[in-house]
Amino acid sequence: MTVEWQKRAAVMYRAGFTVREIEGALGVSFGRVRRALIAAGVPLRPRARRPQDRSADAGRAAQLRAAGVSVRAVASALGVSEAVVRRLLAQASSGGAA
Question: What angle do CA 27, 43, 39 make, to 5 degrees?
Fold first, then answer.
């Protein structure tokens, strides 16, 4: 019953991606991703508050783009606009100075 996206979600989560990032990258709802991870026996991390420092988002945006995720999906995963994603990518490529 495991579908390819569920296997990919488990691999991404174990690699450090959040449920929200996986949701945006794979186009599957938050609840479906979470239920698939639980069904696969993947231990879930506690939910964290959104960091105020966007440098973590810049690194995550660059990571998602390197994995072939579209700018739109990255924006959805991070909960920001596509314009913010482009700024974050520019920040990441310049070494963190925005």
Answer: 60
The answer regarding whether domain 1-48 maps to CATH 1.10.10 reads: yes
Interatomic CA distance for residues 28 and 3, integer angstroms: 12
Q: What is the pTM of this model?
A: 0.50
Q: What is the DSSP letter of 42?
A: P
Separation between Cα atoms, residue 54 and residue 50, nearest integer Å: 9
Q: How many CA atoms lie within 13 A of 67 on its CB side?
A: 19
**pLDDT computed for residue 1 by the predictor:** 39
Q: What are the Cα distances from residue 43, in Å, to 50, 55, 70, 79?
A: 21, 27, 28, 24
28-74 pLDDT per residue, tens = 999 999 999 999 999 998 876 655 567 778 888 999 999 999 999 99
User: Which one-letter DSSP state was computed for residue 16?
Assistant: T
Domain boundaries, the chain: 1-48, 50-98
